[in-house]
């Protein structure tokens, strides 16, 4: 083989190897890009599913009542007590605010007199909301003996109905005329004109309605009342009165509820009253401020994350001020000062092992040592922060040592060469250069601690706390535990509340990680 032919064969072999290597690099890039896209898709799916479930919790339906604050009922025995005095406050707290709100509801539906129907009517809102009216009087005593508007959230069942989570609804307004007739035995019948009858048959479709307890509810609404159809023969319908109204003829609207009454927690009568109040503008929808301004509650519509959010912040402050300084100075000693002996090797091994210990073990340690031995308060941010500090400490030490190792040895040698002492070298040159990595690792460790639940369950932070903690020793809970408690509740309204609390917790963690990135860029130095 000539030299020229040999050179050509060698060149071809080299080109073939280069093409093969380039194809391998392209495949590797494709694999990496696919992995990133897959991770982003999984993250988007997770956050999207949580956001869709949480969306209903960020809005709330509210009812506005015109309440007559008669002083004899709102503050019985107030006499000549001055506003702000203990006697005035005691008189206001004796007031029957629940009764005043019930009177306001009865004014809206004066035709309702039966005790069972009144109980259903008052179930459109939560009676606990009356405490808000009392607090308004305490803050503004001039409201006494005056009429005021008071806005409160509707009950969770009504709220879910208005958000379309209870039953499918078909509304036909001004469907036609109907004439109510009452028999001597109290039975009611409706004579339907052709337009209303056609509307009912149109909504029934080919299968028709059975008008039984397991069938959709067909309700005929009038201006001052409503009746549920229980049977139909020709143009005459047997009916059950939901809201009493005068016999005779009148223009009617049709309301068809797809889910039978037996399969939902809100009755047909309550739906009729809700629709009436919404048409009158008494029930309106707005942003759910209660979710962020209220603490925990037994009622879903009144529950908020404020107490848990403040508890999480207090707990994180204790964790930060205990874990970060101790962890950073421990890393400085082990990396810059400690001699390489058998003892330091044993300490390093144990630190690495502690980073892998399950978090619930630290909860058991806090229960046994801090609470049982030292007698510290249960369910307090102080104890919770100390437990999480013990759990976060190994992570802070390991990340801080890695940041210190990343500083080039030439920095130390140059500082020592110009006469700086060991301490001056560490604190004036090495530590500032390692600070971005130390801060990043510390904040990521704190963000991980923010999402922990198991160790805090062991020290009693699962307790129901209805007040916002003001100090580090006040009873408190934290966001992960609050989510856990809400998720255990059987009512469907808690599902959206739990998902909304998860969104709030994720937002808090995103903020913490964003702070880590900003601090890293702020203190980063190039050499």
Can you describe what's shown?
This protein is an alpha+beta fold and 527 residues long. Among the domains are: 3-57; 306-523, MetI-like fold. It contains 19 helices and 9 strands. It has helices at residues 3-54, 71-74, 86-93, 97-108, 115-122, 130-139, 156-162, 194-204, 268-279, 290-293, 306-337, 342-354, 359-373, 381-405, 409-417, 422-450, 454-458, 479-488, 493-523, and strands at 59-69, 146-153, 169-182, 188-192, 217-221, 226-233, 236-243, 248-257, 283-287. The strands form 2 sheets. Strands 3-4-7-6-5-8 form a 6-stranded antiparallel β-barrel. A 3-stranded antiparallel beta sheet has the order 2-1-9. Helix 1 packs across helix 19 and helix 14 crosses helix 16. The radius of gyration is 35 Å and the shape is flat.
């Amino acid at each position: 083989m000539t030299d020229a032919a040999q050179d050509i064969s060698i060149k071809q072999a080299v080109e073939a190897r280069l093409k093969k290597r380039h194809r391998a690099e392209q495949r590797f890039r494709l694999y990496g890009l696919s992995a990133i896209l897959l991770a982003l898709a999984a993250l988007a799916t997770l956050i999207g599913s949580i956001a869709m479930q949480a969306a209903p919790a960020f809005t709330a339906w509210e009812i506005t009542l015109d309440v007559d604050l008669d002083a004899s009922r709102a503050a019985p025995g107030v006499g000549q007590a001055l506003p702000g005095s203990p006697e005035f406050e005691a008189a206001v707290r004796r007031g029957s605010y629940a009764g005043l709100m019930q009177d306001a509801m009865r004014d809206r539906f004066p035709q309702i007199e039966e005790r069972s129907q009144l109980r259903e009517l008052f179930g459109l809102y939560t009676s606990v909301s009356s405490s808000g009216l009392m607090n308004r009087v305490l803050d503004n005593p001039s409201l006494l003996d005056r009429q005021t508007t008071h806005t409160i959230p509707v009950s969770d069942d009504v709220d879910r109905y208005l958000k379309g989570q209870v039953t499918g609804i078909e509304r036909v307004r001004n469907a036609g005329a109907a004439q109510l007739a009452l028999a001597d035995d109290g039975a009611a019948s409706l004579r339907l004109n052709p337009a209303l009858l056609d509307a009912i048959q149109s909504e029934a479709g080919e299968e028709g309605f059975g008008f039984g307890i397991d069938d959709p509810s067909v309700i005929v609404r009038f201006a001052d009342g409503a009746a549920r159809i229980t049977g139909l023969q020709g143009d005459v319908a047997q009916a059950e009165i939901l809201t009493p109204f005068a016999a005779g003829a009148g223009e009617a609207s049709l309301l068809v509820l797809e889910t039978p009454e037996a399969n939902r927690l809100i009755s047909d009568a309550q739906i009729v009253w809700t629709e009436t109040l919404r048409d009158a503008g008494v029930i309106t929808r707005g942003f759910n401020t209660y979710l962020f301004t209220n603490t925990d509650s037994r009622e879903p519509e009144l529950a908020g994350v404020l107490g848990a959010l403040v508890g999480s912040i207090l707990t994180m402050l204790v964790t930060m001020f205990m874990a970060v300084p101790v962890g950073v100075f421990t890393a400085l000693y082990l990396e810059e000062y400690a001699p390489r002996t058998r003892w330091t090797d044993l300490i390093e091994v144990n630190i690495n092992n502690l980073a892998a210990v399950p978090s619930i073990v630290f909860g058991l340690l806090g229960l046994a040592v801090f609470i049982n031995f030292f007698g510290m308060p249960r369910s307090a941010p102080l104890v919770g922060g100390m437990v999480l500090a013990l759990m976060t400490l190994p992570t802070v030490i390991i990340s801080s040592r890695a940041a210190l190792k990343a500083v080039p040895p030439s920095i130390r040698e140059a500082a020592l060469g110009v006469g700086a002492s060991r301490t001056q070298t560490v604190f004036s040159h090495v530590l500032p250069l390692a600070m971005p990595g130390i801060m990043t690792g510390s904040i990521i460790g704190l963000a991980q601690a923010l999402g922990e639940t198991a160790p805090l369950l062991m020290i009693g932070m699962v307790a129901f706390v209805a007040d916002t903690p003001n100090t580090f020793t006040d009873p408190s809970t934290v966001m992960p535990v609050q989510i856990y408690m809400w998720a255990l509740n059987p009512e469907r309204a808690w599902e959206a509340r739990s998902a909304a609390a998860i969104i709030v917790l994720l937002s808090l963690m995103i903020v913490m990680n964003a702070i880590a990135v900003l601090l890293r860029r702020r203190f980063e130095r190039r050499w």
